[in-house]
Design brief:
alpha+beta, 5 domains, transmembrane, binds adenosine-5'-triphosphate, binds zinc ion
Length: 696
């Protein structure tokens, strides 16, 4: 037996993905080739990605297969490509010509009815039908007999044969117009996503000695110093080295109120400097900027298909053959068995064929999902795909991390309780020295207070973090530990006031307590009210002590589980996930495993890479109310999808009946299909206008 072939991930840029069924068609054709797998097609981003074993199927064969289906294809690099804006295009011109001939046909028919008129209509029909038929044949050769184009071609040819030339022409013309409209809608949605990437300028002012050069953003490297004038947009992520100014970060966070930032502050690409000149050190190359990664993420998210979408694709696969079979029966059975008139029943069968077009149904899910994703993205609510939207709409529990999530993670020292014979300042200095290696909010608070008091810190060696428990270090030869207090009455009273208490020990001997308090975010109570209004039960998870956690939870009116070690948090999340679905909101810093275990993990704050890359969704502004907003958006998207499916199937059902009974003819059948597609797309576009932050 042959050894398993190594497979590689490859990526292409595919053009002409205008119709809803295009992606499904490419997928089906490529699945047939040996050695292909993990096929992802992002309609909005026009990208095709798959795993390929090149010795089984060379990449050129993939390109051939896609071209045979009538699409353009080229290998891409990792950077998203901006496709040239298309004007009317050859397809559009053909529709115009066919429409003109069709109009001429009507003029003839009215002004000079005669034997020539049907030929004019036939010509109009053929002009628009030819490219459709070509694609139908290409798909047929790729092993896909049941395509929309095939249905169209059969119906139109049939109509020509039975002499209904005017109808044949109108039907094909309407179909072509519908396709054009679909293409325009798809392009508009694409533009929405590309707009994100366009929010960073192509150039920047690079400092070089005492003068500046304008250089391409792509050439910038970390460490270089840029100048950002008032009114300019930043091309890359960076850090302010000089100057204080207001920055409008709406490109990433959707928050248009400028925030004041000074030296040391992180500035993200796409931000606009609103006040004063800034000198900024580049921290990331343009291609890795937060905004670029978000744009890439959304594009990839689109390929992560919702379960509903997969179901509808499967449905469409048997729906079309079933309709064709039904049409054949309608054409044959009544004339043979009941003495019906052949022409009449063939005509009804042709109308039925057109009803078989599943466009509106197939586009109903991706249109709504794409609209919801870009609507969210513009407001700093990132959802990584249809599967996440669907899961988020269905969660029953909400778990929130305490530190850094419900609270901003900016604890302040409230009490210093040195043991008898210990100076308050030396307690603080020892604690700050022990915290050297920790980035925990408590560590930051302790170090900040020590430096505010101008304390000189003793030298610490072997400083290390004991995750979920505290820190330790060797100072002056003794082992210093800082962390959760071992039973002390003093600690208990402080904790009942909602404070986190840590105890400092030297060689096992207590040197005193430090109490800190991290106030809940100002909007926390409102966010929890909104979550409750959605019918969800929020619960706070924390590693902090039960008394402090209980005091804070009581103030906010939320259930709390405290004293959780990281593994306990994970177990809590798993239990909730099993009980119907849980969304977990965390800061993504030390709760990544819990975020992963949740049905939907939402990371707060776009700053950290972990948050963006490991969570299912992210909230880019530090605003808790954005979580209920995100849930509202997901629910609205799922509602929209249900409406779309109802519109699509409802119209089909009505016209199925009216076609078979002969109430409506061919062109009504096509109009119903095009109409449904336009309705469904328009309905999905409503999501773009929706502001999920506003309460329903
Ligand atoms: N760097 C540190 N310095 C002092 N004490 C610490 C430190 N890190 C953790 N601790 C102690 O361990 C406890 C649990 O910490 P952990 O990081 O698990 O949770 P947390 O950050 O307090 O809360 P949350 O789980 O809500 O994020 C803290 O309440 C504190 O008592
Ligand atoms: Zn259609």
């Amino acid at each position: 037996m042959k050894e398993f072939s190594r497979s590689e991930t490859m990526e292409w840029h595919v053009t002409g993905l205008d119709c809803a069924s295009c992606a499904a068609r490419i997928r089906t054709a490529l699945e047939r080739l040996p050695g292909t797998g993990g096929i992802e097609i992002a309609l909005m981003d026009e990208r095709l990605r798959l795993h390929l074993a090149p010795d089984l199927t060379p990449p050129a064969r993939i390109e051939e297969a896609v071209r045979a289906l009538g699409f353009g294809i080229a290998r891409t690099g990792p950077a998203p490509q901006a496709a040239p804006r298309r004007a009317l295009g050859p397809r559009g011109r053909l529709v115009l010509v066919s429409g003109a001939v069709l109009a001429a046909g009507w003029v003839f028919a009215l002004a000079a009815p005669g034997p020539l008129v049907p030929w004019v209509f036939a010509l109009a029909c053929l002009i628009a039908l030819l490219p459709v038929a070509r694609r139908a044949v290409a798909a047929l050769r790729a092993g896909l007999p049941f395509t929309i184009e095939m249905l169209m071609t059969l119906a139109a040819t049939g109509a020509l044969v039975i002499g209904e030339t005017a109808e044949a022409a109108v039907v094909v013309f309407l179909f072509a117009v519908g396709e054009l409209l679909e293409g325009i809608a798809a392009n508009r949605a694409r533009d929405g996503i590309r707009a994100l990437a366009r929010l960073t300028p192509a150039t920047a002012l690079l400092e070089h000695g005492d003068h500046v050069h304008e250089v391409g953003a792509d050439s910038l490297r970390p460490g270089q110093i840029l100048r950002l004038r008032p009114g300019d947009r930043l091309a890359v992520d960076g850090e302010i080295v000089e100057g204080v100014s207001g920055l409008d970060e709406s490109a990433v966070t959707g928050e248009s109120l400028p925030v004041t930032r000074g030296p040391g502050a992180v500035v993200i690409a796409g931000s606009i400097n609103t006040e004063a000149l800034l000198r900024i050190r580049v921290t990331r190359a343009a291609a890795d900027s937060t905004l670029a990664r978000i744009a890439r993420m959304i594009a990839e998210a689109e390929a992560a298909r919702a379960p509903t979408e997969r179901f509808i694709d499967r449905f469409a696969r048997w729906y079309m053959p079933a309709i064709v079979a039904a049409a054949v029966l309608v054409a044959i059975v009544p004339p043979l068995a009941m003495g019906g008139v052949w022409g009449e029943w063939v005509y009804r069968a042709l109308a039925l064929l057109l009803i078989g077009c599943p466009c509106a149904l197939v586009i109903s899910v991706p249109a709504a999902i794409a609209a919801a994703l870009s609507s969210g993205a513009r407001r700093g609510l990132l959802l990584k795909g249809g599967a996440v939207v669907e899961a988020l709409a269905g969660v029953t529990h909400v778990a929130l991390d305490k530190t850094g999530t419900l609270t901003p993670g900016r604890a302040q020292i409230t009490d210093l309780r040195p043991a008898p014979g210990v100076e308050a300042d030396s307690l603080l200095a020892l604690a700050a020295a022990a915290e050297t290696g920790s980035s925990h909010p408590l560590a930051r608070a302790i170090r900040a207070e020590a430096s505010a008091r101008g304390l000189a810190l003793p030298a610490a060696r072997d400083a290390r973090v004991r995750p979920g428990a505290g820190v330790e270090a060797r100072i002056g030869g003794a082992l210093i530990r800082l962390g959760q207090p071992t039973h002390s009455a003093a600690a208990g009273t402080l904790e009942e006031e909602g404070k986190t208490v840590v105890e400092l020990t030297r060689a096992g001997q207590s040197l005193g307590l430090i109490a800190l308090r991290d106030e809940p975010r100002p909007e926390a109570a409102e966010a929890l009210r909104q979550i409750a209004a959605l019918g969800l039960r929020p619960v706070m998870l924390t590693g902090d002590n039960p008394r402090a956690a209980g005091a804070i939870a009581a103030g906010l009116g939320i259930a709390a589980r405290a004293g959780l070690k990281p593994a306990d948090k994970l177990a809590e999340i798993r239990a909730l996930a099993g009980a119907g679905g849980v969304v977990m909101l965390g800061d993504g810093i030390n709760d990544a495993p819990a975020l992963k275990a949740a049905s939907v993990g939402v990371a707060m704050g776009g700053g950290t890479d972990v948050a963006l890359e490991t969570a299912d969704a992210a909230i880019l502004r530090d605003r808790l109310t954005d979580l209920p907003a995100m849930i509202r958006l997901s629910r609205a998207a799922m509602r929209n999808i249900r409406q779309n499916v109802a519109i699509a199937l409802g119209l089909k059902a009505v016209f199925l009946v009216t076609s078979v009974t002969g109430l409506t003819g061919l062109w009504m059948a096509v109009l119903a299909d095009t109409g449904a597609t336009v309705l469904v797309t328009a309905n999905a576009m409503r999501l773009l206008a929706m502001d999920p932050r506003r309460k329903a």
